[in-house]
Amino acid sequence: MDNGPGEAASTGGSIVTRALITGITGQDGSYLAELLLSKGYEVHGVIRRASTFNTRRIDHLYVDRHERDVRFFMHYGDTADGTRLTSLLAQILPDEIYHLASQSHVRVSFDEPEYTSEITGLGTLRLLEGIRQTGLGCRFYQASSSEMFGSAPPPQNELTVFAPRSPYGISKLFAHWTARNYREAYGMYTANGILFNHESPRRGETFVTRKITRAVARIRAGLDDELWMGNIDAIRDWGYAPEYVEGMWRILQCDEPADYVLATGAGYSVREFLTLAFDHVGLDWQNYVRFDESYLRPTEVDVVIGDSTKASREIGWAPKVHTPELVRIMVDADIRALAEGASASIDRPALPGWYPATG
Ligand code: NAP
Ligand code: G4F
Predict the structure, then answer these.
(1) Which residues form the NAD(P)-binding domain (predicted)?
(2) pLDDT tens digits, one per residue of 292-348
């Protein structure tokens, strides 16, 4: 049975496309859930059981399941647990799967290479094998990453030879090739979105952009007076996450599965990001930023700048928000959050000193 988009399952007489999102509690998962709900989808999310709440980014979407016309459902699951993933597939019968769950922090992947391979690499294999074994005719999106390009010179596109430089990048490459192999070997609809860095006010606070914008808000408010950073010469292609999840959806609407790069096409160094962020509030970053070598990576990806010509041509995707505007959006959001007393936001450890230096 192939319940592709537009021919989806029927519930209560109406036609509803049913999506399954792994990693729904993350930055991208939360924006994607909003997007799909706004398009009339029934959305099922996989969340990890945790001893603390991890649903903060999606709490606003929650609807009591006893209400009428509920279209948002959560299920416990973990990419380490193939049996559970397979039973969820058989229970939910999704038309589209967006596989976003991952140990997504590059620096952490050097500390936990085995765990990262298990979750980020093998997790994809478990899900694809579950789809194959249950015989589902669904469409599958794999969250591939520009980190797979590693040391390959920019601009990078779908034809660039991969040269990953971290356990995370290597794990993503395993997942990427596994998705392609299942497409070729079994005729399954699997598509890879090779996404360059994309950020937002919902970005985890140990990624460099959010770390900076949150620090700017706190320094401006007089709550902090220094910011410890690693390699600020690295160059990234930073876009705006809500636009990238729209790209994910477009990728799965193609008649034939394919792989696409999504990027803005412009590179900025971390140093330039710092300048833009501090300038936005009238401060000089050089008065606050200090160097801490514990934030360096054993091998660094020096520069990634994407070429998303194929996505523009074939799926009509083009980013509108570029890095300077992104910086303003994020700084303003962190200033607002601080003023509203929500500065402890999503990923801030209660006791930073207890945590390994990861971001
Ligand atoms: P994120 O904010 O770190 O979210 C990761 C999600 O994966 C969270 O929902 C997390 O759950 C979940 N997760 C982690 N380990 C899991 C496990 N063992 N089982 C089930 N779920 C697990 O990442 P993001 O920025 O939204 O990125 C989404 C995906 O795109 C990731 O695969 C990432 O590697 C990839 N990607 C991101 C970018 C980017 O710039 N953002 C670029 C390219 C690719 P908890 O909330 O419980 O931790
Ligand atoms: O924000 P980052 O940690 O992101 P990174 O390593 O590019 O990875 C992110 O983007 C990937 C897309 O290519 C995703 F696949 C991945 O899941 C993740 O979302 O670091 C960006 C750059 C690096 O070069 C890092 O060395 O910033 C540099 N940096 C300098 N000081 C720092 C810091 N990064 C962090 N996290 N913290 C610092 O203090």
Answers:
(1) 20-330
(2) 999 999 999 999 999 999 999 999 999 999 999 999 999 999 999 999 986 444 433
Residue appearing with tokens 């969340």 = 47
For residue 155, say if its preceding peptide bond is cis, omega within 30 degrees of 0: yes
Residue 132 inside a domain? The answer is: yes
- The total number of structural domains that make up the chain: 1
| Chain segment 166-215, per-residue pLDDT in tens | 999 999 999 999 999 999 999 999 999 999 999 999 999 999 999 999 99
Tokens 């967006």: give the residue.
98
Atom from ligand 1 closest to the CA of residue 168:
34
- CATH number for position 33: 3.40.50.720
**344 CB contacts (<8 Å, ≥6 apart)?**
350
Give dist(CA 245, CA 96) in Å, integer.
Answer: 14
Over residues 328-341, the pLDDT tens digits come to 999 999 999 999 98
* pTM strictly above 0.70: yes
Domain region containing 96: 16-203+237-266+301-321
Give the active site residue among 102, 109, 145, 200. Answer: 145
Is the CB of residue 195 below 6 angstroms from any atom belonging to ligand 1? Answer: yes
Strand partners, 145: 195
Question: Is residue 144 domain-resident?
Answer: yes
Q: Which atom of ligand 2 is nearest to the CA of 208?
A: 1
Which of 207, 210, 294, 297 to mutate for ligand 2's pocket (most ligand atoms within 8 Å of CB)? 207
Q: Which ligand is nearest to the CA of 100?
A: 1
Which residue, among 227, 206, 232, 201, has the nearest Cα to 335 in the 3D structure?
201
